[in-house]
Design goal:
mainly beta; hypothetical protein yedk fold; single chain; 5-stranded antiparallel β-sheet; 217 residues
Length: 217
């Protein structure tokens, strides 16, 4: 699973700083919300909270990469992490299993038509030793950015419509499997456009290997 990840914007992480600057420039805070004229259909407006940085938790609003409207590239915009649970249940659904997402009504159409990329600087898992535990940050070897596969949908909160996303997960590889049996689906930077725009590449990218390292922190 992925229940914590990071969005660090140190000067050395040039790409994340660029993404954050673009979101903050295009979505200006208005009272307690961010009002934007850009939505997934390119028409309506929506309101979300200002973006979070640092350690990210479900329900936070963070930058995501949305498919460019011209059929190529992407647009950074803010989006809330976690689908509301059906039936007004408490909490949110923040992960979806990539192996079964195409079979479930909540995720099927999203996987086919509403794919996004979740930019990050790594994700956390814990190694438990009795009553103590050690936290590990997983990030690509030799890279400062980690891109995760996500899907989104639109929801209503009273009279306000907002977009929210979940992170797709897969069985853990050898590196992550020492600490957890699940991990995010990682998209290589060279494959971002294919994930966002190429329906035929979806299945292949869900199984693409991730070259990660674990850093004790």
């Amino acid at each position: 699973m992925c229940g914590r990840y990071t969005v660090f914007d140190e000067e050395s992480i040039i790409e994340m700083r660029r993404i954050i600057r673009e979101v903050e420039a295009n979505f200006t805070p208005d009272d307690s919300a961010v009002q934007g004229s850009f939505t997934p259909d390119g028409q309506a407006s929506f309101a979300v909270s200002p973006i979070q940085k640092g350690e990210i938790r479900p329900t936070d609003t963070v930058p995501v990469l949305f498919p460019g409207l011209e059929g190529w590239g992407y647009t950074p915009l803010p989006m809330r992490w976690g689908f509301p649970r059906p039936g007004d249940k408490q909490g949110v659904i923040f992960n979806a299993r990539s192996e079964t997402a195409h079979t479930l009504p909540m995720f099927r159409r999203c996987l086919a038509e509403r794919r996004i990329v979740v930019p990050s600087t790594g994700f956390y898992e814990w190694d438990h030793h009795g009553a103590s535990r050690t936290r590990y940050l997983f990030r690509p070897r030799g890279e400062t950015m980690l891109y995760m596969a996500g899907i989104f949908n639109l929801f209503c909160d009273g009279f306000t419509e907002y977009p929210a996303f979940v992170i797709l997960t897969r069985p853990a590889d050898e590196v992550v499997g020492r600490y957890h049996d699940r991990m995010p689906v990682v998209i290589a930077k060279d494959n971002l456009s294919d994930w966002l725009h190429n329906d035929r590449a979806t299945r292949r990218l869900l199984h693409a290997p991730a070259n990660l390292q674990a850093i004790s922190c």
